[in-house]
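Sharing a chain and its predicted structure for anyone who wants a worked example. Both blocks are below, sequence first, tokens second.
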Amino acid sequence: SIYKNADEFIYEVLSEVPLDLIEPIVNRVKKGAHFMYVFSESAVVPKGRKELLKKLGFDKLIEKGLVERKMKKNVQTVVVLNEKEACVMFPNTEGESDLSEMFYSSDPMFHEWCIDYFRYCWYGSDVFKESKLKE
């Protein structure tokens, strides 16, 4: 619902790339939402991602500045948010991203914490390097 309900922006810090969410994200961006994301260098990437991005014209969205992306050595805490709602997934006891449970809210204080965490990750990240991702 975070992707579907986004009008202004979608921000995310991810350790895995969900193939089934790429098209809904691109559709929101084409309707005017700004998309910024940080991937882990070791992100789990599904087969067919590159072909799907090409088919959907993702490169053109990057060229227009509607999509911005960065890369971080390691992502443990995952966050996804739009202008109204947010979710966060904390790592398990081994320090790995745990996507099986999340905290979700549209509470303004929770949203502010998530946006602060996203910015902390964004400004602490490096240039996006597609070559580091393995399908």
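Comments welcome. The first helix runs from residue 19 to 30.
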